[in-house]
Structures are given as C-alpha cells and as structure tokens.
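Quick one, tokens below:
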C-alpha cells in the first residue's frame, strides 16, 4: 500500500495535526460530545474525524500512527470507491487511470498521510458527486448518496462543505433541471442529512449559545474568508501554483479534461465541483495548500476519462507491445522530469515557513524529550508548565506529556499584545509556581533566567530544550 507505511515515523506537527490528535486523546477522558483542547471546550469544527481518531485511540492506543490512520484509510476509500464506480459505469481503463493519477498526485498523497480532516471531507464530497452524477443522468436514487456525502462533509469540516450545495445549484442551472429531478428520494435524503447533522449542532448551540456561533463561524469562517490571518500571506493565483507543483505532469491535462467534460456534457458534476472548489477557495483570503484537497479526486476522474478516450482506439486496434512500451517510456520520462522540476517548490508548500516569512518553531527536540520522560512519568502532579520563546503551541506538548499544559511567562506580556488562541491565558511564572513542585518544559537558555525565589532542578535535557521540576523556595 502507498498510503499506509511509515505513518508514525515522524512527530505530529505543532499545528493542525497536534491539535486534532490532542482533542481526540482528551475525548477518552472528557467525553465524546464536546471536543476539548487542553481541557477547554473547542468548538471550531464538527467532531466526525475527531470521533474516528478517538475510536482508534480507544482500541489500539494513543500514537502518531493511529492519529493519522483516519486520513490514510479515507484516502484508500476514495481510491477504491472511484475505481469500483468507474469500472461499473465507464470501463476498466478509466478506472485504472484514475487510480494511477490519484496515487501520483503529491498533493493528494500528502493530505492522506497527515492527521487532518481534509481527506474525510474529500471522501464525503466523492460520495456526494457520485450521487449528483446519477441525478444529472436522471437516476434520482443519487439524491440519497448526495445527502449522505454532504452530511459526512459537513460533520467533518463544517463550512468547507458549502462547495457541495453550490455545485448542485450550478449543475441544476446548467442542466435546466425541473421539479421532476427532485422526488421522494431527494426529500428522503434531506431528512437523513438533517438527522445526521442537526443533533450535534443543536446540542452545542443549546449548551454554549453565542460562544459556539462565534468559534464555529468566527475565526475559521468569516475571519479566514475576509482577511489573511496567522501569517498566511498569498497571492490570488496561489492555488494555480499549488496544482502545478502538487500534480505534475497531469496538471497540464486538467484544463483540457474540464473543458471536454463540460462540452460533451459528461461527468459534468465533477468538472463543476473542481471549478467551484478552486474558485471559492481562491476568493477566501487565507489560503493553504490542503484547502483544495477535495478537488484532487474530481480532477483525477475527469483526466482519467479524457485520457482513456484518447487511448481507447489504440486498445481496440490491439496495437503491438512495442507501441505501449514506447508510450510508457515517454510518459515515464515526462513524469520524472516534471517531478524533479517541481521538487523544490513542492517542499516549500509544506515547510515551516509561513507566507509572510515567519518560521514556525521546530518541535522535534521537545517531542523527543517528552516521549523519553513521560514514558515513565515523574511522580509530580499538576499541569505541565511551558516556558518557551516565540509563538506558543500547546497541543503537541499536551499530547506527548498526556497532561494539561499551562504556558508561563517570566514577564507580563506587553500592553496590546495579541493573544494566541491556541495558548490562551498565559500566567506569570511567579503566579503558576507554588510550594508544590511542578514540571516545566523550557528552552535551555531560559533556565538561567529563572528568578531568585524558585528552585529549579533539571530532569532531562535535549539539544535546545530541557525538562525539570520547579518549586517556590521556602
């Protein structure tokens, strides 16, 4: 398998991976209904992927492997579902080409191997698009699949699923659908969709009220849509660059495949969806490479159908093996050249450097230290105190220490300093440390700055960080 090996070979990243893994881990102790991050209710996204990861943690134990397996298995499901559907509705040539294109698309492979939500979102979109294709071809049973896929997408990543109803509306306008395209299957599917999505949202709204609305629709919808936040500064043509370096050399065929689909009125739902995803997330001001992950399966289907149409006459004619060898050799040379040319910019897409030049801190040293120490946790109670310079992320510290984390400061934050939503309510060291010992993770150069009046005892040191105990001096 391409997607499953070595899922646990590197630490979780400080950002989304660490956040989602820690929330899933905390579900095992804090309950399954309300997600919590560092013991605080986290209401920014729906819980479907978090539930799946928590189930894996419950059955198999907490680790990086099981934090990422949900994404990888969602990718396997996408490939298998598309292959089987194309074999049944088109032919084996189109199916195998679709599988080949997806497995050779670096953007798709990347999102499948990280513990985030985009591949499960994409799986929901694929199910919905199969249903929309059936409806477009006057098989109204497709409405059931559309609404189920939409429910999966909505319960995975909330507002990001809006591309599905928008695709359906545009497809209906292009095809001039009448009321005869609705029927009982549409209303049955809608009822199922509401049954699957409303209970959790109503429960959160009832319990948290305006706080839920603010977190769920504020930072991660309105703010990202209207401004470039968290250092993600990009140009409007950003996703064209993403496609160019994440899907070579097939990206060169994408425009022709989309135009061919629309012109021939075939697989039209997939073409509309790909354009909607790329267009809508281009309009969103905060742009990240994985936002357009749902477009990769659609583009693979369209390109596979386009290439299959051009290869099929040669298959029918039963060309000699020499022809196919030459064709395979030419395709291999083009693919290798394209991969080598785009290697450097592709690494840049997923580097620790933000669009505005900010370099995110490397957590490998801290993770190795926490793994080593907390394999047999010290007999010191209370949250893990963290004293680090630069921007703070507490999710991976909490995940690898298996306890809550409290950020501490040597000096008060400057007036007007922007609060970090992922490390809220930092405390002064003088307020956090009492006569009871506490564990503290800190940069090694800060150990010498601990003020008098505290007793600090190192326990284990890494290259750049160390962990010790600290207590107020008697």
């Amino acid at each position: 398998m391409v997607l499953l090996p070595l899922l646990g070979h590197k630490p979780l990243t400080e950002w989304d991976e660490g956040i989602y893994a820690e929330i899933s881990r905390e579900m095992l102790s804090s309950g399954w209904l309300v997600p919590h991050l560092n013991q605080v209710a986290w209401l920014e996204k729906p819980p479907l992927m978090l539930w799946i990861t928590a189930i894996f943690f419950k059955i198999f134990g907490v680790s990086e492997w099981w934090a990422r397996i949900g994404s990888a298995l969602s990718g396997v499901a996408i490939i298998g579902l598309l292959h089987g559907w194309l074999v049944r509705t088109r032919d084996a040539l189109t199916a195998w080409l679709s599988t080949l294109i997806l497995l050779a698309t670096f953007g798709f492979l990347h999102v499948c191997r990280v513990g985030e939500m985009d591949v499960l979102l994409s799986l929901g979109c694929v199910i919905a698009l199969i249903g929309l294709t059936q409806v477009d071809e006057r098989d109204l049973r497709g409405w059931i699949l559309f609404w189920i896929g939409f429910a999966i997408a909505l319960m995975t990543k909330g507002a990001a699923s809006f591309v599905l109803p928008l695709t359906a509306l545009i497809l209906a306008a292009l095809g001039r659908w009448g009321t005869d395209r609705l029927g009982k299957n549409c209303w049955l599917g809608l009822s199922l969709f509401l049954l699957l999505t409303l209970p959790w949202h109503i429960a959160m709204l009832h319990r948290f009220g305006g706080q839920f609305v603010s977190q769920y629709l504020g930072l991660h919808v309105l703010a990202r849509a209207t401004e470039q936040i968290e250092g993600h500064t990009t140009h409007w043509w950003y996703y064209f660059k993403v496609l160019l370096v994440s899907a070579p050399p097939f990206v060169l065929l994408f425009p022709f495949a989309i135009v061919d689909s629309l012109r021939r009125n075939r697989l039209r739902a997939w073409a509309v969806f790909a354009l909607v995803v790329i267009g809508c997330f281009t309009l969103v001001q905060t742009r990240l490479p994985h936002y357009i992950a749902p477009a990769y399966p659609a583009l693979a289907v369209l390109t596979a159908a386009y290439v299959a149409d051009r290869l099929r006459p040669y298959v029918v004619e039963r060309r000699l093996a020499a022809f196919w060898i030459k064709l395979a050799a030419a395709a291999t040379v083009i693919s290798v050249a394209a991969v080598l040319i785009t290697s450097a910019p592709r690494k840049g897409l997923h580097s620790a450097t933000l669009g505005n030049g900010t370099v995110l801190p490397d957590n490998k040293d801290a993770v190795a230290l926490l793994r080593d120490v907390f394999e047999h946790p010290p007999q010191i109670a209370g949250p893990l105190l963290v004293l680090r310079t630069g921007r703070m992320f507490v999710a991976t510290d909490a995940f690898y220490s298996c306890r809550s984390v409290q950020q501490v400061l040597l000096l008060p934050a400057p007036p007007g300093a922007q609060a970090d939503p992922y490390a809220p309510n930092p405390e002064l060291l003088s307020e956090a440390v009492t006569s009871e010992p506490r564990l503290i993770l800190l940069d090694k150069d800060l150990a010498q700055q601990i003020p008098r009046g505290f007793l600090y005892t190192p326990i284990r040191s890494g290259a750049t960080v160390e962990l010790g105990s600290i207590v107020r001096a008697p």
